[in-house]
Design goal:
- With 359 residues, the protein is α/β, with parallel strands linked by helices.
- The protein is built from ten helices and twelve strands.
- It has two domains: 123 residues, Aspartate Aminotransferase, domain 1 (Alpha-Beta Complex); 225 residues, Type I PLP-dependent aspartate aminotransferase-like (Major domain) (Aspartate Aminotransferase, domain 2), CATH 3.40.640.10.
- It is globular, with a radius of gyration of 21 Å.
- The two termini are 25 Å apart.
Length: 359
């Protein structure tokens, strides 16, 4: 199996697994202790979480605090619902975690347009009266990098706070500047599933959305997993150390993939993007048949969260593609552990299977 779906999830880094194992120990060790307990094993578990929190903070700007959550989706819910903004503006190409949470709350949702290049303009107009603006750092479907620093500045000038979904950018790009909230996910940067984080700028207040024991600085009740936190922290620290190396490797993979599939149309801007995301279309392509013909190549027809819905991608529709064009698009995602040989092999198979359809 050639795995090319890195936007859906990334392989667990060996370093992250090694960091997790001591905190999964059974009765023979103390690693299973509750980090909120006052006895020595509990304090040791809490200390491991403190270390992980500092490691995750290394991905983020100074001047804020890291709140561990069960996922980036939960982090986004905490930022939107915990702030209780009455009027929120979000881009049309946001992840469903932002769009659906914005719609679920009471109050108006205003949609910000993206261009045909897949980018929200840096000078986008923030509607008067907006309390919270949400624009992602890197689009999960087409990989385009948004001008979040400029949009954050515009949000503040309009009297609004700024939320950035940095799930696809964290550990790959410099942290977004000017944000008041930043959401991230461990399993999108070679950490474990089941844990995310919300960074909250100092001085910004939130109300909890999960009630109970008051853990996690009073904002997220529930027992934290030392193992998941340790894995997240190790993955974050590794990403910081490898950021340049990973970017160079991904750029080489991108060049090879584009060379191997020259007749496909790229969705989204070619330059202002994370090059580990290659979203391509071939008019007339039967994507379901292509995926059936290539069962030993794991790639995507769009967001994993919307797979199987049968609906065309809302992101591709938002940048001006027709339903037919959106449904003839595929997403190839690669990263740290992908080899050049795998890209060459997978692209050759995709090209051959496409040719067999006569498109």
């Amino acid at each position: 199996m050639i795995y090319l779906d890195y936007q859906a999830t990334t392989p667990l880094a060996p370093e992250a697994l090694d960091a997790m194992l001591p905190w999964l120990a059974g009765p023979g060790g103390a690693g299973f202790a509750n980090p909120h307990s006052p006895h020595p094993p509990g304090r040791a578990a809490a200390a491991a979480i403190d270390v992980a929190r500092e490691q995750v903070a290394g991905l983020l700007p100074p001047g804020g605090k890291v709140i561990f959550t069960g996922s980036a989706t939960e982090a986004i819910n905490l930022a939107i619902l915990g702030r209780n903004a009455l009027q929120i503006a979000v881009s049309k190409i946001e992840h469903a975690a932002v769009l659906d949470t914005a719609k679920a709350r009471a109050g108006e949702v205003r949609l910000l347009e993206a261009g045909t290049d897949g980018i929200v303009p840096a000078d986008v107009a923030i509607p008067p009266g907006t309390d919270l603006v949400a624009v992602m750092q890197v689009n999960n479907e087409i990989g385009t990098i948004q001008p979040v620093t400029e949009i954050a500045r515009a949000a503040h000038a309009a009297g609004a706070l700024f939320l950035c979904d940095a799930v696809q950018g964290s550990g790959k790009l410099a942290p977004p500047e000017g944000a008041d909230f930043i959401a991230l996910s461990a399993h999108k940067l070679y950490g474990p599933k089941g844990i995310g984080a919300l960074w909250v700028r100092d001085g910004v207040t939130l109300a909890p959305t999960i009630h109970g024991g008051g853990q996690e600085q009073g904002l997220r009740s529930g027992t934290l997993s030392p193992a998941l936190c340790a894995g997240f922290g190790a993955a974050a620290a590794l990403a910081v150390r490898r950021m340049g190396e990973d970017a160079d490797h991904v750029a080489a993979l991108w060049r090879q993939a584009r060379k191997a599939l020259p007749d496909w149309t790229l969705n989204g801007d070619a330059a202002r993007r994370w090059h580990g995301n290659l979203n391509l279309r071939r008019d007339g392509l039967d994507v379901a048949r292509l995926m059936s013909d290539l069962r030993d190549v794991a790639f995507s027809a769009g967001s994993a969260c919307a797979s199987g819905s049968g609906r065309p991608s809302h992101v591709l529709r938002a940048i001006g593609l027709s339903d037919a064009q959106a449904k003839s698009s595929i997403r190839i995602g690669f990263g740290r552990y992908t080899t050049i040989g795998e890209i060459e092999d997978a692209c050759a198979r995709i090209a051959a299977a496409t040719a067999a359809q006569g498109v």
